[in-house]
Amino acid sequence: MGGSLSCRKRDTGVTAPTPILQVRFFGLPDSGKSSVVRFLTTGVPSLKSKEGEVDNDMQWVTHRKVKMVLWLSETSVQKEIANEGEVARALVYIVDGSIPEKLAEAKEYLKQQLEQTAGAPNLLILLNKCDKHSFIFLEEAHDALGLDKIRDRHVRIYACSAATGEGIHEGLDWLCSLFQLEKGTYISRTGKSNT
């Protein structure tokens, strides 16, 4: 009796770790951060203001086969993440688009947060509350936030509504399209415009 040879790969029971895209959500109070994150995690729009609050600062979401950890924060990412290897690769800034008077404050807050954030992660701005009658035009918000002056990263603004879910997935589609998987890590693609 002779031994048999097999060309099959031996199953060691160990699988490669799933790559994770680190995304930080931030915004001024009452902009709808928790409601947007709640929609992404549950798929259910938030109809009441307190209903949208998220219990945890960190949420796991898979969008278009990209596994993401969403960090919900009011402060800079350095205070949130201790391991430098886990610094956010993308930022999502939630802005209340129904109160035009707050855009100057939103611009300053964005500038402050970008200065405090390590590296130059891609930036998605979700102009929330597009279902309200007082919602401003995207072009007006784009100009008021000074987005043309941000040249060190990919930037795009989308209208959205946490109350209906409108525009949220479209924004994340754009964000996910900016990354490619290389050696088990998500890296930013180059050559895309910031419009």
What does this protein look like?
- With 195 residues, this protein is an alpha/beta fold.
- The protein has one domain: P-loop containing nucleotide triphosphate hydrolases (Rossmann fold), CATH 3.40.50.
- The chain is built from five helices and eight strands.
- The strands form two sheets. The chain has a six-stranded mixed β-sheet, with helices on both faces. It has a two-stranded antiparallel sheet with strand order 7-8.
- The chain is globular, with a radius of gyration of 19 Å.
- The chain starts with 20 loop residues before the first strand and ends in a 7-residue tail after the last strand.
- The relative contact order is 0.18.
CATH fold topology? Rossmann fold
- Number of self-contained structural domains: 1
Order the strands across the largest sheet as they lie in space: 2-3-1-4-5-6
Helical coverage, percent range:
10-25%
How would you describe the shape?
A: globular
> Stretches where pLDDT falls below 50 for ≥5 residues?
76-85, 191-195
Q: What would you say about this model in short?
A:
By secondary structure, this protein is of the alpha/beta class.
